[in-house]
Write a structure and sequence with these properties.
This protein is an all-alpha fold. It starts with 9 loop residues before the first helix and ends with a helix.
Length: 230
């Protein structure tokens, strides 16, 4: 809370550099790890937004009380989500000295671990199903800190606000907004079990996308660090 931006040259760039040109913004959108991160975060937002919106319908499908179930789901999301968000950032920071792409490794592996727990939730009777649900939510949010750190690390300070603004627009416009109607469409033409199985596939795909980005993140981060130090 009290630290200033510790990156080399960040304050120097803000004080002395002129406004960035269009080329700097184009370069941002040509950064492969930035684009890959946006895709993975969009898929993840599809999952979390879809779950938050449709879990009450799923609980009714499983003959559970939506009011009681939503309270439990809310508590799980608050506790698991908060702890996981903080822990994911700590783990990724500590691993970065050994793995240059640790922010994507933690994000991707977290999603891949969440997938089987989420599937287990769909086939486990209640109230026992809340246990794998807690674990699924925990690993779903493990990427929050690392993935957003990666966004900052591959964008120059002068275009960083734009990088985050575009990311926020994309992940919601193509993520949770699409989950609202698509999961309803799938559930309406089949059932909510099939709709949530579809969600499990999106969880798995999101993890794979982050692991694909592992190849590009170190070089993209190093390029920004070099530019900041000049």
């Amino acid at each position: 809370f009290l630290q200033r931006d510790p990156r080399i040259g960040a304050q120097h760039v803000e004080r002395e550099s002129p406004r960035r040109s269009l080329r700097d913004y184009v370069k941002l959108f040509q950064t492969r790890s930035y684009l890959i991160n946006c895709v993975a975060q969009t898929l993840m937002t599809f999952v979390t937004g879809g779950l938050g919106f449709w879990v009450s319908a799923y609980l009714r499908y499983r003959n559970q009380s939506p009011s009681v179930g939503m309270t439990i789901f809310g508590l799980i999301t608050v506790v698991a989500g908060l702890v996981s968000t903080l822990l994911g950032g700590v783990i990724a920071d500590k691993l970065r000295s050994r793995f240059a792409a640790s922010y994507f490794w933690v994000s991707g592996i977290g999603m891949l671990i969440a997938c089987p727990f989420f599937v287990a939730t769909l086939y486990t009777p209640f109230p026992a199903a809340w246990v794998p649900m807690f674990l699924a939510i925990f690993f779903l949010f493990l990427n929050t800190g690392p993935s957003n750190t990666a966004l900052a690390n591959v964008s120059l300070p002068a275009v960083r606000a734009t990088a985050f603004a575009v990311n926020i627009l994309v992940i919601h416009a193509l993520g949770d907004v699409q989950a609202f109607w698509l999961l309803g469409y799938i559930g309406g033409h089949t059932n909510m079990h099939v709709a949530f199985l579809f969600v499990s596939g999106i969880i798995f795909l999101s993890g794979l996308v982050w692991l694909i980005g592992v190849k590009y993140l170190p070089a993209d981060t190093a390029a920004v660090e070099r530019a900041e130090s000049n």
